[in-house]
Here is the input.
Amino acid sequence: SQQGEEDPQALSIQEGENATMNCSYKTSINNLQWYRQNSGRGLVHLILIRSNEREKHSGRLRVTLDTSKKSSSLLITASRAADTASYFCATAPISGGYQKVTFGTGTKLQVIP
Amino acid sequence: GAGVSQSPRYKVAKRGQDVALRCDPISGHVSLFWYQQALGQGPEFLTYFQNEAQLDKSGLPSDRFFAERPEGSVSTLKIQRTQQEDSAVYLCASSSSAGGTYEQYFGPGTRLTVT
Here is the structure.
């Protein structure tokens, strides 16, 4: 079963615009990760944010985490056609030892040149 | 450096056939995961290895699915008596940490089509 749900399911924007996608999850987490998947390169890790962090930046990516609302957002600024892909959040729950990562349902982003 | 590789990339099997999917993780990575991804969905966890030990197989859909990692490096996912509902992309991922605490590096996947 999928732990996270991304919103929206699909998003279409013009090149240069910003794209925001959201992830909601159900159980308490140790960390939350965002991945990108396109047909050319498979699943690629983008960024990891720990439960005690509220915001993290990496290049044109900005991730926020609100553990009280059990939600995260991924902002891609100044989008490019190459950002066209599906984006997934993945959560690692709080538990001793091994932690199973669970993926959400994904947001399909299309950036129109 | 070399990433995670999987073979074959595509596999077509007739219903009832057995298939074996191979994963070569990044050298030295302790953790290895198998996922099943249906069209338009996120990856669904199948099983997890820490070195050669299979610590979690709770995601395997039935006893027709079997995975092994005998020497703590290469892993094989075997599906016996394939059914049409087994058609999916099977992803392998490895991580340098125990469990899923750190980022996972994914292979390109094996697309299995059962006819």
In short: The longest strand of chain B covers residues 88-95.
